[in-house]
Structures are given as C-alpha cells and as structure tokens.
Specification:
five-stranded antiparallel sheet, single chain, binds zinc ion
C-alpha cells in the first residue's frame, strides 16, 4: 500500500473509497488467449489493514469461492476501514476443468508460491498472483476444502509458533486449529515467510457447496474483521471450545489395514469413545468384515467420503482432546441430541 492509502498493482490502482472488479491476466492458453483470474478490490474510505481472501488454489475446492464472493459482493462494506483484496478463484484452469491441479502437467498451484517469472507455467502464474495481490497485504486467509473423497470439520491451519499468525488463527474462532509450518510453496507458508501472516481455512468436501460450513466460515471472517477493526461487527467470536492439534503427530490418522469398501458409522465432527466402532471394511466376497474401533476417545475431525480403500489409505482423522475440552464437547453434543 502506498502512504496515501491507494492500492496499486501492475496495471492499475484503487483509491480510498473505490471498488474495482477486474479480470487479471496470469497466463495464456494454447490459443494465445489470456488466462485471467477474477479479482475484486475494495478500498475503504477509512484507513486500516490490507487483507487478502483467496480460494480455489485447488480448482475443485468450491466452498471458499462462495465465502469470498459473499464478503466482496453481499456484505455492507460502506464503513470498511482498510482494503480487501478478494481472489475467489486462484486456479482458473483447474476450476474450469473441475480438478485439483493445474491441467498443465498436473502441477499444484499451491506448491508453486511465491512463484517466479522465468520459471514453469505454474510458478509464473503464482508470481503474478503473489506479487500483485498478496505482497501488498498485511495478512490473509486462504480457503480450502478436504481433498476429493474426504471431508473434514471446519478448521484453521496455522503456524502457531508465529505470534502474528496465532493472533489471526485465534481471531477466526474455529473449534479446531491444526498447528504446522506448512510445506514449501504453499500460499500460507510463503506469505507468512515474507511477513504477511496467513492462515488456511479448510472445510468440507471438494465439488460441493455446503451452506452450513460456508456460513460458519463467514462468521470467522467477521470475527477476524472485528479483531483487526476493519468493520465494527459484534465481536471476536469464542467458539465455546478450542483445541490446537500438533500436525507432527500423524498417528492420529487411522489407516485401513485391509482393502475394501468402508461403511463409516459416526459423522464428521463426532466425539467417539475408546472402543466405539468407527467403521467396517467389507468386500463383495468375504464375510469376515474388518471392524475398526477407536483406539482412544477423540474428535473425528476428518473422514473418508469415497468409501473405497487400499490397505494404507486413510480412514479418518481422530484427535485426542484435553479432558477440560472433552467435557465441553460432550456437553455440546449431548445438547444437540436432546
Ligand atoms: Zn486445497
């Protein structure tokens, strides 16, 4: 941001009090036509932080697109103090093909940041996005869903050892935070590395619009805007309970020990007790079904949706809770069923 509050990118600028919808060229197709991403920039009349909201870095992850669209086009932003950079579809080629990766050599756009202008097609696209619309920001939120065939509770992924990132993650107000630095090339990792605290929000499944999760994600954005005083909303939300999971602890992924078809019993977000049946693995010929029981009492953060597995494929993400948190979750789930 310039000192007079103007937002500039290569090719244009947005003054305070102005809103701009643009389609920004990040590459070219085989026909030489531009590949352009939709961008909405809303520069508030009042000064404040510059924030990016992005989605669909994986082209088939749709929930976040609706979150970013609603903030940009349906929220009343007349009193906005700061600037919003809304990037609802980062991976346009993947989105058009309805697939996770760029359909060009199957590259992962979300392993290509911060990008480079003289490198691969994916890194060139990443550089155009990063240099113009991420680098000028003070912080950001990148929306994802689970990989195709799985679903998960809404959760925030953040490097909690970084205080600025931890503030943002907590302000979002989700029940579950997964703490990890993140891999090289991931938007949140690379933005955070250059001093733009960024978190990923993951929710639900690919290829779906899931209204409940979208509403929950929007409440998180509102809470963040309140924490950083972009909008005078009600308050920063406290979700009732919170658990921070260390991502290094991969043991929490329970994997199939047999190939077959999975009959999953509890729903995403359930608290399951030690010894409780999580799922049964069957196949068309065997009658000796394999039962998978919870090895400890925990929260089912993610589960398989596409029910076919090879041995070694993940079945569910089960997370142990501190006793205090567990009691709150127990009470909440008991209330829900009564
Ligand atoms: Zn993703």
């Amino acid at each position: 941001m310039s000192t007079d509050g103007t937002f500039t990118y290569n090719g244009g600028k947005v003054d305070p009090g102005e809103r701009q919808n643009l389609r920004y060229g990040i590459s070219e197709t085989y026909l030489g036509d531009p590949v352009r991403i939709p961008v909405t920039i809303i520069n508030g009349e009042q000064p404040g932080p510059t924030v990016f909201l992005s989605a669909a870095a994986h082209g088939d992850e749709l929930n976040g697109i609706e979150v970013v669209r609603e903030v940009a086009h349906e929220w009343d932003l007349s009193d906005l103090a700061g600037t919003l950079v809304c990037l609802p579809v980062l991976n346009v080629p993947g989105f058009l093909a309805q697939q996770r990766y760029l359909p060009i050599y199957d590259r992962d756009l979300n392993r290509s940041f911060p990008g480079r202008e003289d490198s691969t097609s994916a890194k060139r696209m990443a550089a155009r996005i990063f240099d113009n619309f991420v680098a000028p920001c003070d912080f950001g939120i990148d929306f994802h869903t689970s990989t195709r065939g799985r679903t998960n509770m809404l959760h925030v992924r953040a490097d909690m050892s970084n205080d600025a990132v931890a503030r943002l993650a907590k302000a979002y107000g989700s029940n579950v935070i997964i703490d990890s630095e993140g891999s090289d090339g991931v938007l949140r990792t690379e933005a955070t590395r250059v001093g733009i605290p960024t978190v990923t929000v993951e929710m639900g499944e690919a290829h779906r619009f899931q209204r409940g999760l979208i509403d929950d994600a929007l409440a998180g954005v509102k809470s963040v805007f309140s924490e950083y005083e972009l909008l005078e909303t009600s308050a920063v939300r406290w979700p009732g309970w919170r658990t921070v999971i260390d991502d290094e602890n991969e043991k929490t992924w329970i994997r199939a020990d047999a190939g077959g078809i999975v009959d999953m019993h509890p729903e995403r977000g359930s608290l399951v007790r030690e010894g409780e049946r999580i799922c049964t693995l069957t196949n068309p010929f065997k009658d000796d079904n394999v039962a998978v029981d919870a090895p400890f009492t925990g929260l089912l953060v993610g589960i398989l949706e596409n029910p076919v597995v090879y041995p070694g494929n993940p079945l569910c993400h089960l997370v142990e809770l501190e006793p205090k948190v567990r009691r709150v979750v127990e009470r909440e789930q008991a209330d829900r069923t009564t």
